[in-house]
Automatic annotation (TrEMBL):
Residue ranges, compositional bias (Basic and acidic residues): 941-956
Main location: cytoplasm
Region Disordered, residue ranges: 191-211, 936-956, 1202-1227
Compartment(s) of residence: Cytoplasm, Myofibril
Compositional bias segments (type: Polar residues): 191-203
GO molecular function, one term: actin filament binding
Family: Belongs to the TRAFAC class myosin-kinesin ATPase superfamily. Myosin family.
Biased composition, class Low complexity, residue ranges: 1207-1219
Entry GO terms, CC: myosin filament; myosin II complex; sarcomere
UniProt-listed GO biological process terms: muscle contraction; myosin filament organization; sarcomere organization
Keyword line: Actin-binding, ATP-binding, Coiled coil, Cytoplasm, Motor protein, Muscle protein, Myosin, Nucleotide-binding, Thick filament
Protein name per UniProt: Myosin motor domain-containing protein
Length: 1227
């Protein structure tokens, strides 16, 4: 504990030294204490009286330095961060002001006004955008066309490869002369199928053209309907947008309300926490009062003892005359005690002074808070004035709107007198420019003031922005009113006078508002200074509170640790007592077990001879078991030796524990019987296993010979079967290759025809789209020309003067928009003001609550101090009264103490003897336990060996059964192989006959080959025609290739099915003569499969057309969804901006609340620090009291010694005892 607590005095020593004693010495050397004031032991450090307080003071000083350094660093970091933020804010304000100046200069430029009026009427930019879109579409179409050309080239290369492969196949056909009769018949059938398919293709092409025409008509109708639907959808979407905006506003308001509720709940939680802490402190005060009551009870008890001792004093009055000489020493001790009392009284006076100072500081803070609240009320009154001014400005705006409406009625008369008004307009413009120069100078002054008041920018920016907005709106309205006055002829003089009057009033109002703003800025600066001072004072108080809280926590932790250590020591005592009782019980039981083991050892020695004879008969078959038995015999010999040694020790204990050993002997006999039964069972099982092993070895040898014979026969049969299978596979491969070639040719024909159709349809579609695009381009160009003409006409009209109506309407719209903006800004300002008022009220409530809590705590502390003072006074009075009474009782206690020490020494000697005897008994018990464990392990090993032997027997039986099954299976396989061999011989003869027949057929096939060559030439011509068609329609080759791949997959699946059938035919090769019949059947099936494939392909074409229509619909739907999503994205972006603004506002609110919370925390910490200081002083007073008590004890001891010497007649005086030392644990 010592190194961990005082580690802060020398941290390097604790980190380097693992030994706590050395760490303690290093820490004490670093603290600068004299070596005579402390001593370090192995586990504790001993101090003289009062040295521990010096150590605590050193530790507190070091902690205070560290905390001040940390606080200074944190404050420096925060101030740097705040300075950086203010610099960035200053730069941002300069940029905003510069942009506003530029806008104010540009606003009055006539060409800019003209551009603002003409800009919404121009459609040139829109036409250019449409042209750009059309150009992008054309570029995309060009890219698609280039891609299709690349695909066409790739397909041509593929086609060339296919032609090369075809030539290779033809060369193979010429080179190989085999079974061509079947191939020729299949080719004829395929040609017939080809002609049928071509007729069907022509029919389907006609149908496709008709369906495409119908689809185009439907597509045009669909476009018209989609246009109408899009118009309706736009209306619906506009309505939805308005609804969504309303919902978003509602959601934002709900979010603000929730945030405010969350803040209220958080503050309620903080209040609950503070109340809980208050309750805890009250409970601690109650505990202290209870402890004080206990001390008072002790004092009362001591008073009773004093009354008893006074009776004895009456008897000893004769001896008091002899002890008059010793009164001088007692008086000296009494003077010392009185000096200590004076010191404690001075400490109490210091505490009272501190209390009075704290009360004065609290009163000062209350006054400052009251002044702040008064200033806040003044600010609220100023805000009310500003609101009134805003309302007056709104009323003025309404009056100006009414005047604008009156001016519109006089619009017809204004056209006649335009020339006269132009001069007056110029004069008014010059006056307005002068007013604008005055406003710019005022803006520069405001900038300087803002630079001076950088800390108040956040609060002033909102008010400045609102005032500037109102001024800008009024200027705009005034300019619009002046421009409209030029159009009014009849009421010119009246309106001019009104304008001058309004101008004067507005100028006066502006000056008043500026003066009010200046006053607000000054008042805010003064308030900020006061708030800073209060914040510093609050920070100081909070720091003191923190220190007091820390000291309180440290004392509480020390108290808890001491209570925990006390509980642990009590538990350890109880555990030690329970262990002693358990050891005594174990000792008794082990003595009984010793006698039982002796008897067992005698009986086992007798039975060992019989067991050795039995095990010798089984040595040849079971070497492992013999080794285990030998180990057991050795262990038993060791046990016997140990038993012979232990007999001498056991005789001492036998007389004491014979009565208890009788009950245990019956259990050991039962265990012995069980072991004998198990041994007998093990011997029987071992004999049975040996017999089974011998029988299994014989069967194993017989089966091995039989298996070798069967393997030889199997090898012969497999060699014959493999040869036959190889021949059959060669024939099957040849037939499969020819089938694959024919199927590939058919698939290529179908694929090429489909490609031609697809390419033709795509060409028609692309031509139509191209023509439509050209028509659209021409229409757009016409519209561009018309729009350009219209723009020119409009510009001419504007130059001639027909812009007045448009200008008036635009001015009206602008005024309405500005009015709405001003109303919204006013509402926002009112809401912000309300929020600030609520915050001020909350802060006042929180301040009052904190003040009340601090007052309560101070009152509680004062009560505690008064109670402690009273208790100290009572204790001192009682101690003075009991000192004389206890002096006599202590002499008698010393005599009793000597007697008890002598008894304790005798008991310790007896305890040492008993402990030695106990240690020897425990050693013998451990030996017997180890012997028992060895015997148990040997028995367990025997049981394991027996279980392993059983498992091996079961495994060998299973193997024997499996070998018998394999024998039977091998015999059946042999018989089957013989049958297959005979069948293969018969099939070989039949194959030779078929070969002769095929040689005869080869001649006929050569003639058929010539015919096929002529047909191939015709096919070449057809292929050339197809190639020409493919070149014209290779734009959709990819889709055709995909379909061809699918068809190829289907054909391969069918081929796999045929191969499976042929494999089944191999398995059933009993009748090779029926092969031709089955081949004819397979060809018929193939023809049927070809028709089915054609039907499937037609269905696939229909499905693809349906999918095309569905994809077109999906494309249209996707475009609609895209438009909706774009609108939704715009809405979401707008909503996100609003959310971001709301978030920034709420973040500002959160920052302000956090700052308030930090200030409150600082206040609480300072109050806690003050409480901790008061507690430290209280504890110092307690320590001084304890020291005074120790001195009183020393004085009492001196008095007793003097009395003893006086009784003996000696006049010598004893020296004072050595100073006491307090132990502190190192770990």
């Amino acid at each position: 504990m010592f190194p961990f607590r005082y580690k802060i005095l020398n941290p390097t020593a604790v980190s380097k030294e693992p030994d706590p004693k050395k760490c303690a010495t290093h820490i004490l050397e670093a603290s600068g204490l004299d070596s005579e004031l402390y001593r370090t032991g192995h586990t504790k450090v001993f101090f003289r009286a009062g040295v521990l307080g010096q150590m605590e003071e050193l530790r507190d000083d070091r902690l205070g330095k560290i905390m001040t350094w940390l606080q200074s660093w944190v404050r420096g970091y925060l101030s740097r961060k705040e300075f950086k933020r203010l610099q960035e804010q200053r730069l941002a304000l300069q940029v905003v002001q510069r942009n506003l100046r530029k806008y104010l200069k540009l606003r009055t430029w006539p060409w800019y006004k003209l551009w603002q009026k003409v800009k919404p009427l121009l459609n040139v930019t829109r036409v250019e955008d449409e042209i750009k879109k059309l150009e992008e579409k054309a570029a995309k179409a060009q890219e698609a066309f280039e891609r299709e050309e690349k695909a066409k080239k790739e397909l041509e290369a593929l086609y060339a490869k296919l032609l090369a492969e075809k030539t290779d196949l033809l060369s193979q056909l010429e080179s190989e002369k085999g079974s061509f009769g079947d191939v020729q018949e299949r080719a004829n059938k395929l040609q017939a199928q080809k002609s049928d398919l071509e007729s069907q293709l022509s029919e389907t092409q006609d149908r496709l053209t008709q369906e495409e025409d119908a689809r185009n008509q439907l597509f045009q109708q669909k476009k018209k309907l989609e246009q109408e639907i899009s118009g309706f959808k736009k209306d619906v979407e506009d309505l939805e947008l308005s609804v969504q905006k309303a919902e978003q506003d509602r959601a934002s308001k709900d979010h603000q309300i929730r945030n405010l509720n969350d803040e209220i709940a958080h503050q309620d939680e903080l209040i609950n926490k503070l109340n809980k802490e208050k309750k805890l402190q009250g409970e601690n005060g109650q505990k202290l009062s209870e402890e004080l009551q206990a001390a008072e009870d002790k004092v009362n008890h001591l008073n009773k003892v004093k009354a008893k001792l006074e009776q004895t004093l009456d008897e000893l009055e004769d001896s008091l005359e002899r002890e008059k000489k010793l009164r001088g020493d007692v008086e000296k001790a009494k003077r010392k005690v009185e000096g200590d009392l004076k010191l404690t009284q001075e400490a109490v006076a210091d505490l009272e002074r501190n209390k009075k100072e704290l009360e004065q500081t609290i009163q000062r803070k209350d006054k400052e808070i009251s002044s702040l609240s008064a200033k806040l009320e003044d600010e609220q009154s100023v805000v009310g004035k500003v609101q009134k001014q805003i309302k007056e400005l709104q009323a003025r705006i309404e009056e100006l709107e009414e005047e604008v409406e009156a001016e519109r009625q006089a619009r017809a008369k204004a056209e006649k007198q335009r020339a006269d008004l132009a001069r007056e307009l110029e004069e008014l413009g010059e006056r307005l420019e002068e007013a604008g120069g005055a406003t710019s100078a005022q803006i520069e002054l405001n900038k300087k003031r803002e630079a001076e008041l950088a800390k108040l920018r956040r609060d002033l920016e909102e008010t400045n922005i609102q005032h500037e907005g109102t001024l800008a709106a009024l200027r705009k309205k005034h300019n619009d009113a002046v421009s409209e006055m030029g159009e009014q002829i009849d009421q010119l003089n009246k309106l001019k006078a009104k304008a001058e009057r309004d101008r004067g009033t507005i100028y006066n109002e502006l000056q008043q508002t500026r003066g009010a703003v200046d006053l607000i800025g000054r008042e805010k600066a003064a308030q900020e200074k006061i708030s800073k001072q209060l914040g510093q004072q609050l920070n100081d108080v909070q720091g003191k509170l923190d220190e007091t809280n820390r000291t309180l926590n440290d004392f509480d932790a020390a108290k808890k640790k001491l209570s925990i250590e006390n509980g642990d020591l009590l538990r350890q005592l109880e555990e030690a007592e329970s262990q002693v009782s358990q050891l005594s019980k174990i000792k008794v039981s082990l003595t009984t077990q010793l006698e039982d083991t002796k008897r067992l050892a005698d009986e086992e020695a007798r039975e060992r001879a019989t067991l050795l004879g039995k095990f010798r008969n089984l040595e040849h078959d079971l070497d492992n078991i013999r080794e285990q038995i030998e180990e057991e015999a050795e262990a038993k010999a060791d046990i016997q030796r140990q038993l012979s040694k232990a007999n001498a020790d056991a005789q001492l204990w036998r007389s004491k524990y014979e009565s208890e050993g009788v009950a245990r002997s019956e259990e050991l006999e039962e265990a012995k019987r069980k072991l004998q039964a198990r041994l007998a069972e093990a011997e029987e099982t071992i004999e049975a296993l040996n017999q089974k092993v011998v029988a299994l070895e014989k069967t194993k040898q017989r089966l091995a010979t039989e298996v070798e014979d069967l393997q030889l026969e199997c090898d012969r049969a497999t060699a014959i079967a493999n040869a036959a299978e190889k021949k059959q596979k060669a024939f099957d491969k040849i037939i499969g290759e020819w089938k694959l070639k024919v199927d590939d040719l058919a698939a290529e024909l179908d694929a090429s025809q489909k490609e031609c159709r697809n390419y033709s349809t795509e060409l028609f579609r692309l031509k139509g789209a191209y023509e439509e695009g050209q028509e659209q381009l021409e229409g757009v160009r016409r519209e561009n020309k018309n729009l350009a003409d219209e723009v020119k006409d409009l510009l001419d009209q504007i130059g001639e003067g027909g812009r007045n109506i448009h200008e008036i309407e635009k001015a009206r719209k602008r005024l309405e928009a500005e009015k709405d903006e001003l109303q919204a800004a006013l509402e926002e300002a009112e809401a912000a003001l309300e929020q600030e008022e609520n915050k001020v009220l909350r802060s006042q409530l929180e301040l009052s609550q904190v003040r009340q809590e601090i007052d309560r705590r101070i009152q509680e502390k004062e009560e505690e101090f008064e109670n402690t003072r009273k208790n100290h006074q009572r204790a001192l009075d009682s101690m003075q009264a009991s000192l004389e009474a206890e002096a006599k009782g202590k002499a008698e206690a010393l005599r009793m103490k000597k007697k008890l020490e002598a008894d304790i020494n005798e008991l310790e000697i007896a305890l040492d003897h008993a402990n030695k005897a106990n240690a020897e008994a425990q050693k013998t018990i451990k030996r017997y336990q180890q012997q028992l464990k060895d015997t148990q392990t040997a028995l367990e090993e025997e049981q394991r060996a027996r279980d392993e032997a059983r498992e091996q027997l079961g495994i060998s039986e299973r193997r024997a059964n499996a070998l018998q099954n394999e024998l039977e299976e091998s015999r059946t396989l042999l018989e089957q192989a013989d049958r297959a061999r005979r069948q293969a011989e018969q099939e070989l003869g039949d194959a030779h006959e078929q070969l002769n027949e095929l040689a005869a057929q080869s001649a006929s096939l050569s003639a058929a080959k010539r015919k096929l060559e002529g047909e191939l030439q015709t096919l070449h011509a057809d292929l050339d025609e197809l190639l020409n068609e493919a070149k014209n329609s290779e734009e959709k080759a990819k889709k055709a290739m995909v379909d061809a791949a699918r068809l190829a997959d289907e054909l391969r699946a069918e081929q796999d099915h045929a191969q499976t059938q042929e494999k089944l035919r191999k398995a059933l090769e009993t009748q090779i003569k029926d092969l031709q019949v089955r081949l004819d059947e397979a060809e018929a099936n193939a023809l049927k499969g070809g028709k089915k494939a054609i039907a499937k392909l037609e269905q696939r074409v229909r499905e693809l057309e349906n999918e095309l229509d569905g994809e077109q619909r999906r494309h249209a739907d996707a475009q609609k969804n895209l438009r909706k999503s774009e609108r939704r994205i715009k809405e979401l972006s707008f909503q996100a901006e609003e959310d971001r603004k709301n978030h920034e506002r709420m973040q500002d609110l959160v920052d302000k609340l956090q700052q308030k919370i930090k200030t409150y925390k600082r206040q609480i910490e300072e109050a806690e620090e003050i409480a901790a200081l008061n507690l430290a002083k209280f504890r110092k007073a307690q320590q001084e009291l304890e020291e005074a008590e120790e001195r009183a004890d020393m004085a009492e001891q001196a008095i007793t010694k003097f009395r003893a010497k006086g009784r003996s007649g000696s006049a010598a005086r004893g020296a004072s005892p050595a100073p006491t030392r307090k132990p502190i644990a190192l770990d």
